[in-house]
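Section handout 9: paired folding examples.
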Amino acid sequence: MKKSILAALAAAVACVSSPAMPAAALRFGNEAADTMRINAILVDAVGRDIASPQERTAYVARLFEGVPYAAHTLEGSPEQLTVRLDSLDCTTFVETALALAYTAGERRSSWRDFVYNLERLRYRGGHMDGYGSRLHYNCDWAQDNMHRGLIADVTPRIPRTGYIVRSIDFMSRHADRYPALADSAALEAVKKVESGYRLHRFPYIRTADLRFRDVQDALRTGDVVALVTKLKDLDVTHLGIIVKDADGVPHLLHASLSAGRVVLSDPPLADFMKRNTGLLGIRVYRLLD
């Protein structure tokens, strides 16, 4: 049903060929298909007039269920603003859903506006300027987007919140895993970012506390959850979006490596987290209008 609605809308929406930024700075998986589908999703979402940014996020995100998982789709030299709707990882899935929801909230229905908002979410200060400008770490992504009023960190508002302190420098410690860091300027840019997150203190909800009803009630459908890792030099290793069932129990909608696609996990979030022993808990963010 979702696919048929989008197909009909896509057929009715003209695909605009000129990009919102220089062509060399913008990369699509399939320009014609991607721009047409973005326009169709936005026309649909704007027409539904969903008032809540979180509900809008969840609605848009669920349109991507079943899309194949693919890692490293943002990588390449030089750095480009990559738009791909045919394959997603956990980060690009969340960023794409947020950018679409935010654009629909502005009552805009052009892929150009989506591209503008995607760049705002993905890059420091909202402007792409090389590999080092990408918000690689969740802590950095959160700080930058909160500072510009795009999201709120609502973790401290949720019952049973705790705090953890980490020095975040995983990328420079494991530079061999990131081909772009073979460039000394890119490595120095990443190290500069990391220097701002030494002994970084941030809030989180422990996995064990996710079973409590007061915690579950405080979560909303459409909240973005960042899954906090046990690794000592990193904060987050996975992202997803909350979808609550009819009983108000939160589940995780995410681009799953193990499932190979975007899925709504069958076990509730509390059980999903408990089964993943490398995780400590979650951080929670909300899109703002």
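Moving on to protein 2 of 2.
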Amino acid sequence: MKLYEMAIAPNPRRVRMFLAEKGLLDQVERVELDLQKGENLTPEFVAKNPLKKVPVLELDDGTCIAETMAICRYFEESYPDTMNLLGATPLEKAQIEQWLRWVEFYFFLPTGMAFQHLSGYFKDRMTPNIPWGEECKTNIEKFFHFLNKHLTQHSWLCCDRYTAADINAFCTLEFARVVGVRIKPEQTHLQDWFDRVKNRPTASV
């Protein structure tokens, strides 16, 4: 199997951390693409993912799976004897899905939009909207506060254990640094959670 990615991008990192926790990172051949150079825009890659995004998992038979959580779901279902990260019971699955959507819509999306509209990274292929980028930064900061409040009573985001929700939130929080949003000194519960994830060996992949 091949995993098409850009190592510094947050979405591929979410997949790598997921695979590392399950002991499956060595099951994929990682293929590095440079998005700024447009290596994801080639006809060869567009044939693998018409939306031109990374990561993409290419199976041995040539089948391609795009989207971070779709790839993670494939490995969760294909390797049931590895660490469970997407829920072992109907309730866990629902709770993790809830948090994955919260993180995706209210944290990762505004972080990505702030990056695109404030950094100038893709200014050759889009028109940045600075006020929108700043509004997204404000929404990121609100979610930091939401997380800190939630973590006053929880060690992990849900299910009283480490799950894919923690992976996604952690990668997003680190991504937020590129737009100048960081944990505030008074957000001690969020900092403690971040340190717990950061200290896991899989956080360095």
